[in-house]
Specification:
By secondary structure, this protein is of the alpha+beta class. Helix content is 57%, strand content 12%.
Length: 423
């Protein structure tokens, strides 16, 4: 009320010269100048990138629980009934069953979920295909229930493309989203600066929403308070999201954290030469490798086996923990194909912190880093981020209306003659 009272006198011609001088000095304090500077940056950046950020944040919110939604909608594909007293079929029989349904298809890996009521996923790739297709199979009956390519997965792919490059050509859409993300990071930082109250007593006001006030005040509080509470997560989202927008940013991240950037394809010419020479076919079963993996990685988790080939001497297995607070990092084993002896064991928890961060960029960005717990926090934060361009635009429109009203009032006062004022 005090601020509104003072604001009402700014354009009042009845103010004395001394009062005007006091008002001018209070408005020209260094903090107010700084605050106005950052407020202008925040305003115009928000107006310029608001629509793009709204689309990116909305699609990010929808995509957060993509896997859970996909498995719920297509429960007949992803879920299985566990027969009483029944055990799973041999993995080689499951692989054979899937390969029979795919003409010229070759299975490359099999994913075994920790949940016994979930179907196994076998990745099959045809010759000439860059990526394989996941076939969901009932491990108790050997029935192929379908593939991961469903109507809902196509919808989420559209959401993904909107999120990454606005459904435009990647050479056009990716930079637009990238620079909008840079702006989003700046909006978050400038928003925090603007949020800082001038007086300590006013801190509580910036942390809560006064629901009993007018809708304009509620909208203002929603923008300020919710933006403050979610600022840290939103900053993480934006800084990690740039990883997929700019090569120079990705290279800079690896250089900053002192981690060598991974390269695609086989490493070293010697390994290629060895792979060209056929090796003896092993007599071990996939269950043998799985048994060793569970002994070495003794916890409940989802397991993925890259199927052994005749020209490769090793078998690689990856395992990740499951649960509400499960860390998303994977543990990996490399086993000798002939003996199942452990040749290499890489635990995520043993990696240096800088390597853990760089290997978890995607999980940090999507909120999967700490399982369902962090995904819920990210979902709420992303939902707030979606609302910020809307509430911010409403605040801007209200200020424009207020300025126009003040301008009209000032004009009317200036047009009054002395006789009218005395009368």
């Amino acid at each position: 009320m005090k601020e509104k009272f003072l604001e009402g006198f700014i354009f009042d011609t009845s103010l004395t010269a001394s009062n005007k001088q006091i008002m001018t000095k209070s408005q020209n304090t260094p903090w107010k100048k700084t605050r106005k500077f950052f407020n202008d940056i925040h305003l115009w950046l928000g107006i310029g990138a608001g629509l793009v950020l709204f689309v990116v944040c909305l699609t990010g919110t929808i995509y957060t629980f993509y896997h859970e939604i996909e498995e719920t909608i297509n429960a007949d594909i992803y879920q299985v009934e566990v027969p009483q007293g029944a055990s799973t079929l041999l993995l080689k029989d499951l692989v054979s069953s899937v390969e029979k349904t795919v003409e010229d298809g070759k299975a490359s890996s099999i994913s075994i979920p920790a949940d016994p009521e979930k179907a196994y996923a076998i990745s099959v790739r045809k010759e000439g295909e860059r990526r394989g297709t996941n076939y969901l199979i009932n491990p108790y009956t050997g029935t192929v229930q379908g593939t991961s390519k469903t109507a809902s997965s196509e919808f989420f792919m559209v959401v993904f493309r909107l999120h990454r490059w606005l459904m435009l050509d990647t050479e056009i859409g990716r930079p637009i989203v990238g620079w909008s993300t840079v702006i989003f990071a700046l909006l978050t930082l400038t928003g925090l600066i603007i949020w800082i109250p001038q007086k300590v007593k006013a801190w509580k006001q910036g942390l809560k929403i006064k629901w009993s006030a007018s809708w304009k005040r509620v909208n203002h509080d929603l923008h300020n308070a919710l933006g403050f509470y979610s600022a840290f997560i939103l900053l993480i989202m934006s800084l990690t999201g740039l990883y997929w927008s700019f090569d120079w940013y990705r290279d800079g991240l690896y250089a900053t954290f002192g981690v060598e950037r991974p390269t695609r394809g086989p490493r070293g010419g010697d390994e290629k030469k060895k792979e060209k020479q056929p090796l003896q076919v092993t007599t071990l079963t996939l269950e043998d490798y799985l048994q060793v993996a569970h002994a070495e990685l003794n916890y409940q988790g989802d397991t993925r086996i890259n199927l052994p080939t005749d020209n490769k001497p090793t078998v690689s297995i990856a395992k990740s923990k499951v649960g509400f607070f499960a860390v998303s990092g994977r543990d990996e084993l490399t086993l000798d194909k002939m003996t199942a002896a452990v040749k290499k064991k890489e635990l995520f928890s043993d990696e240096p912190l800088n390597h853990q961060i760089m290997h978890s960029i995607r999980s940090i960005h999507t909120g999967e880093i700490f399982g369902t717990f962090s995904k819920i926090i990210y979902f709420i934060s992303c939902l707030i981020a979606t609302s910020l361009p809307v509430t911010g635009t409403i605040i801007w429109i209200n200020k424009l209306k207020k300025k126009r009203a003040r301008g009209k009032k000032k004009t009317k006062v200036a047009q009054k003659t002395p006789e009218t004022v005395l009368a």
